[in-house]
Amino acid sequence: MKIQRRKSRTSEVYVASLNDIMFFLLLFFLIVSTMVNPSVIKLLLPKAEHSEQTVSKQTINLTITKDLKYYLNDEQISPDKLEFRLKMAMRKAQETTVILRADNEITLQPVVDVIDLGNKLKIKVILATRKQ
Questions:
Q1: How far apart are the C-alpha atoms of 96 and 85, rounded to whole Å?
Q2: Could you tell me if 99 and 126 are in contact, meaning their C-beta atoms sit under 8 angstroms apart?
């Protein structure tokens, strides 16, 4: 003889509070991501009407501040060691592009020196600007 239960039991997972938890996590990560600052070196880049974004296999960020301090990928270096460091970067990757971020208050000569060094080493040098 088979005995049947009057009430069948089913299991449930209460998920109404998961929406609130996911909302707070999303809000937390959005707030934290706006606080992250990728570049610590503050510059005022020169303006350009037309700008183009290029992506290559390896990009090197070279920054020249208004007090003529050189930063290679956020690491301060002296101008006389720049050629050696660029040669070392060329050995790691065949196609290297230098993104030159120069402050708009400096004279043109340091920028021309870096571009000339890039031509000497056969490295593509791109001058970073900001849109008007």
A1: 12
A2: yes
pLDDT per residue, tens digit, the chain (132 aa), is 677 767 777 788 888 888 899 999 999 988 888 777 665 566 666 777 766 665 546 788 889 998 999 998 888 999 899 889 888 877 877 778 888 989 888 888 999 999 999 888 888 888 888 776
Cβ proximity of 104 and 65 under 8 Å: no
CB 121 within 8 A of CB 113: no
Structural domains of the chain, with CATH: 47-131 (3.30.420.270)
Assign 63 to helix, strand or coil.
strand
Distance between CA atoms of 27 and 34, rounded to whole angstroms? 11
pTM above 0.70, yes or no: no
Rounded CA separation 89/96 (Å): 8
Helices (H), 1-132: 16-35, 82-92, 109-121
The Cα angle at residue 40 between residues 118 and 37, in degrees rounded to 5: 120
